[in-house]
Predict the 3D structure of the following.
Amino acid sequence: MQAATQTSQPDGDERAFSGRELFKTYITGETQVHALRGVDFDIRKGEVLVLLGPSGSGKSTFLNIVGGLDRSTSGTLYYAAENLTAKSDRDLTRFRRQRIGFIFQFYNLIPSLTAEENVRLVTDIASNPMDPAEALHHVGLAERRHHFPAQLSGGEQQRVAVARAIAKRPGVLLCDEPTGALDSSTGIRVLEALEAANRELDTTLLIITHNAGIAAMADRVFHFLDGQIARIETNAERIAPAEMTW
Ligand SMILES: Nc1ncnc2c1ncn2[C@@H]1O[C@H](COP(=O)(O)OP(=O)(O)OP(=O)(O)O)[C@@H](O)[C@H]1O
């Protein structure tokens, strides 16, 4: 593993995100929390990034802003040539719906719908979706598509959530602790599904985790500390999730 501290992207690659001097301050009554304190970064299309850092260091705030769920207090953020900071709320929502898939620690599936129906909720409103069965095939759950969430393990439910996220063919998947509720072998299968989306669909992948072992599957690792990216580590090679241990 090679360590590097530069924030610039390798030459000649297509840009996914580019952020400059991003600050985020939450104001609650008399209290101000400086969640992001001047973050600069570039992320290239198709990159796999892992975000590490102590609790409260700003990782989720960063992910929510990059995904258009929230806005920075100041600074600029681009997705390719689109200036996200200049967008109206309506346009930012449209950007998020079209380009971004989210995966959270808890799967948020609808219990009364089958796996396929859960995915179809998204494909029914997307502009160029995959067939739900194809999305479930991508995560290795084609055979289980008529099962309800309660009939699936935690890892399988999370893979349905991955299928739901990739079914609208987003350019980017943002994952906040996707394996946080899973044991290691089940978590690795979820990471394999995410890595396959990156490899087969060229989806840019950002994964927040508290598990430093997961960093091995990344092209680069952003280390957050006190609202800043304190260090960027570049992996000489990516390790397949199946080869990882923790
Ligand atoms: N909506 C909010 N209102 C006020 N403060 C907030 C809000 N969201 C986050 N914060 C604060 O901003 C700081 C950064 O939080 P954030 O959730 O981004 O950290 P994190 O690195 O993702 O932490 P964790 O690993 O525990 O999820 C924390 O001090 C947190 O308490």
Notes: Confidence is low (pLDDT under 50) at residues 1-11. The chain has one domain: 2-243.
